[in-house]
Amino acid sequence: MQINEILTLERTLFGVPGGSKKRVLEYFSKFIAQQIPALDSEEVFSRLIAREKLGSTGIGEGVALPHCRISHCKEAIGTFIRLRDKIDFDAIDGQPVDLIFLLLVPEDANEAHLQTLANLAETFAQDDLRKALRKSDQPEKLHELLTLGVSS
């Protein structure tokens, strides 16, 4: 799946306070349960934390891609958060994180889940995109950058 298929403007957030990895995942869990009532915030949070215990989803360059499988999730759901302040996310390069793309997928999504993660990692590997995301302070612009790409 491409980003434009899983990310809505309503789930493109800017200036979210960081604090800690746990606090951001908790914030997201409550936020997504409000957006999609079929999802339980406690289940989302516990599954994201369980996934982080397997190994950090901080992929480097200030980016994290937290993800997990969720019951009652009918299709892949993406949310982008640009934090107000960088936080420690135990990223592979040791750098703090300020760009977070959270992905929830149905429990039976295997190959599609992995392909979506690969697409996200490839997208966030683009230096120009990361720079543009960090310069923008408007959710509409952030959403456009993520769904349409960086124009030269």
What would the keywords be for this entry?
six-stranded mixed beta sheet; alpha/beta
Task: Report what the structure shows.
By secondary structure, the protein is of the alpha/beta class. Helices cover 43% and strands 26% of the residues. The protein contains 6 helices and 6 strands, in the order αβααβββββααα. It has helices at residues 3-6, 21-35, 41-54, 111-124, 127-135, 139-148, and strands at 7-16, 58-60, 63-64, 67-70, 77-87, 97-106. Strands 1, 2, 3, 4, 5 and 6 form a 6-stranded mixed sheet that branches. A hairpin with a 2-residue loop joins β2 (58-60) and β3. α2 runs antiparallel to α3. The longest helix is centred in the first third of the chain and has 15 residues, at 21-35. The model has no long low-confidence stretch (mean pLDDT 93).
Largest sheet: 6 strands, mixed
The H-and-E topology, N to C, reads as HEHHEEEEEHHH
Number of strands: 6
Radius of gyration: 14 Å
Distance between the termini: 25 Å
The number of helical runs is 6
Helix content range? 40-55%
Silhouette: globular
- Computed structural class: alpha/beta
* Average pLDDT taken over every residue: 93
Strand composition percent:
25-35%
Runs with pLDDT <50, length 5+? none
